[in-house]
Amino acid sequence: MTAIFANSTLVNLVKTDTFNGIVSNIETYQPQLNVIEKYWASWYLFMDNDKLATGLLFFLLHEFMYFFRCLPWFIIDQIPYFRQWKIQPTKIPSMKEQWYCFKSVLLSHFLVEAIPIWTFHPMCERLGITIQVPFPTIKRMALEIALFFVLEDMWHYWAHRLFHYGIFYKYIHKQHHRYAAPFGLAAEYAHPAETMSLGFGTVGMPILYVMYTGNLHLFTLCVWITLRLFQAIDSHSGYDFPWSLNKFLPFWAGAEHHDLHHHYFIGNYASSFRWWDYCLDTESGPESKVSREEKMRRRAEKNVKKNI
Ligand SMILES: [Zn+2]
Ligand SMILES: [Zn+2]
């Protein structure tokens, strides 16, 4: 029996054969639930198998959100008007490149990511990640997601930096750097080993969080994964608009930050924020190179003066 309600007798009360029937029964017996909670509960009741319901939900959510978010970038690439905001305006991805990338990403979704997605629910149960309605408060979800963004960014910085060393780059990360001028679809174009290890930041950090707190809702995870997908796709979009988030939040990385990484193959290792690259002096691009050299020169002069 599904664990969607804390009170299991409710399950027998609202369950019928059709999805719409379940939705209307929930409206009758649980009118206090909001519309998303009603459909969420109806999905689990209709599927009548929590493992399958979670697996399918995550897989479909990932596929839909990924390609849905890539589509506007694909359209923008076809419209010359938008070139004024393209970071590398002479490098527009060809149809052939985009088609190849699309096929590779889709294949890797089915082959690599399908397995962890199907084994996700049993792990959630063991860890205490709940599927029950009602959902946690928006404030709680927002705080948890903000924390996941910070933790994922930290993991991404160090793992990505490691991927730029010798054999890790040669045999694994080089695949992702096929495109020196990235585009939305290229966000998940990577070697399976990279998808797994960088993906740990997205899935592993919430797991560590729930191991510590014993409390996390699966819906919070769905929202977090969707936002993280949007961040990854947008940072590969190749466009920096006057209304991009990094113009309002200076510590937000955005496309400008990650485009430089693809362009110069070095520096700007973090995913969402700029603070790691700023503090550890690994910012990418010619301007950062000049300021880094200037800093080194000043340090050397200081040392010479000290020794005189
Ligand atoms: Zn890289
Ligand atoms: Zn990239």
Written overview of the protein:
The chain is mostly helical and 308 residues long. The chain has one domain. Helices cover 66% and strands 1% of the residues. It contains 14 helices and 2 strands. The protein has helices at 9-14, 19-29, 35-47, 50-77, 95-118, 120-127, 138-162, 166-171, 192-213, 218-235, 245-248, 254-264, 275-279, 286-307; strands at residues 129-130, 216-217. It has a two-stranded parallel ribbon with strand order 1-2. Helix 4 runs antiparallel to helix 5 and helix 4 (50-77) packs parallel to helix 10 (218-235). The longest helix has 28 residues, at 50-77. Bound molecules: zinc ion (2 copies). The site of one zinc ion (ZN) has 5 residues, from loops.
The gist of it:
With 308 residues, the chain is mainly α. It has helices at 9-14, 19-29, 35-47, 50-77, 95-118, 120-127, 138-162, 166-171, 192-213, 218-235, 245-248, 254-264, 275-279, 286-307; strands spanning 129-130, 216-217.
What are its keywords?
308 residues; mainly alpha; 14 helices; elongated; binds zinc ion
Order of helices and strands: HHHHHHEHHHEHHHHH
Instruction: State Rg.
Output: 23 Å
Tally of extended strands? 2
Task: Count helical runs.
Answer: 14
> Ends: how far apart?
80 Å
Helical proportion?
55-70%
Amount of beta strand: under 5%
Unreliable parts? none
Global geometry? elongated
The figure for the number of domains is: 1
Order of strands, main sheet, comes to 1-2
